Every structure is written in structure tokens, then in C-alpha cells.
Amino acid sequence: xYGLWPRAGGVMDVKxxxxxxxxxSSMIRALTIALILLPLVFFASVALGxxxxxxxxxxxxxxxxxxxLRFRPSSFVVxxxxxxxxxxxxxxxxxxxxxxxxxxxxxxxLLREAGKGxxxxxxxLWGGFGWLWSDKRGIVQMYVSRADGLVWxxxxxxxxxxxxxEDPENFVRALSN
Length: 177
Fold this sequence. Notes:
It is elongated, with a radius of gyration of 18 Å. It is 32% helix and 38% strand. The chain is built from four helices and eleven strands.
């Protein structure tokens, strides 16, 4: 989607294309629902008199809020000169000249590119966010909400990114121009 988009300093850029984080896959959605129910069950148990679950309930609620506000990006904004990754409480800018390439990648290609991996960060609740430690590529920045529609961003001077924007084909096209 094209439109006006605020940038640092209050300047509006007309050429921004906004891509939200892709909708969760059914598996991630089911896992998220199950995980969301956990602190709710704990709080209900506390309300019924089990004070032992108050600390775990509050701790889970705080962790979930932290994941939503600081780990799960809400959108990816393609400007002529940068890619901005937007979270509720932060923004990260990647200059276009630091993007070597961008392409769609499926699970099999990801395994060939990165090898076996392990997530370091938040996983299961709304997706997988943080680092993907891989045996072939080392650390990959990862912000995915599903296992399809993956976009691989190769960086010139930093680690690669693996993301799942909505409309991945148009995202790749926009970032490649």
C-alpha cells in the first residue's frame, strides 16, 4: 500500500509502501491461543483463592507484553532510501545500500541457505522473533509469523534477515526496485 508515512523529524514521505506482518499460520494461531490461555487460567485460579499462581501469572503477562511491544514487528515500510521495521516501541532502519539482495525463499531453500537452525528469542506466541542461529550462516535476524511467504534479505555489512511480510511478492518487488 502506498501512502503518507511519518518519518523521524515529522517529515512525511509519499513514496512509502507499507507491508504489515503476515497473518499467523493456523499452527501459530493455535499455539498462540493456547499460550494466551495459560496466564488467564493462572489469574482465574488466583481469583478462586490459589495465591501461589499470582507471580507466574504476572510474570507471563509481562513477558507476553514484552514480546508484543519489543519482539513482534507490526510492519515493514519500504522507502526509496530505507527499509523501516516498525515495532510498537521501536523502529529499525536499514539503508537500501546495505541490502545486497531480497528474495522469496521456501523452507527447503532456507535449509540449503542456512542449514539447521535454532531460534533464540521469542517463539510460538504470535510467531518466531529474534535470532535464528544456523550452522551455515550463523545468526540470522528472524521475524516470522508463518512458515510460508518467507523473505530473505541479504545484507552487505550485517547479518541477513528472514521475515514474513503480508504480500511477500510485492514486498520483494518494492524492495528490489
